[in-house]
Design brief:
Helices cover 66% and strands 0% of the residues. It is mainly alpha-helical. It folds into two domains: 48 residues, no CATH class; 29 residues.
């Protein structure tokens, strides 16, 4: 079984029904919003290059630390 066939069940599809008289720009905006909410684009960008597991853990830990520090700064500013 090839790699694409094995991951076939993980495919996410974004659908949008557009009426004949609808504005194209509004439909495009709705489509972009649905794509952003589904996370498809972020997943594609993430899988564009291989990231070693240790590098991924380091990156996630650094992101968590920066979120925590930001939260601490906002809490300190409220006091």
């Amino acid at each position: 079984m090839s790699r694409n066939q094995n991951n076939h069940h993980n495919n996410k599809l974004v659908g949008l029904s557009v009426e004949v008289g609808d504005n194209f720009n509004a439909a495009l905006r709705k489509f972009k919003k649905k794509v952003d909410q589904s996370g498809i684009l972020m997943e594609v960008l993430k899988k564009q290059y291989y990231e070693k597991p240790t590098t991924e853990r380091k990156r996630k830990k650094a992101m968590a630390r920066s979120r925590w520090l930001k939260k601490q700064r906002t809490l300190n500013n409220l006091k």
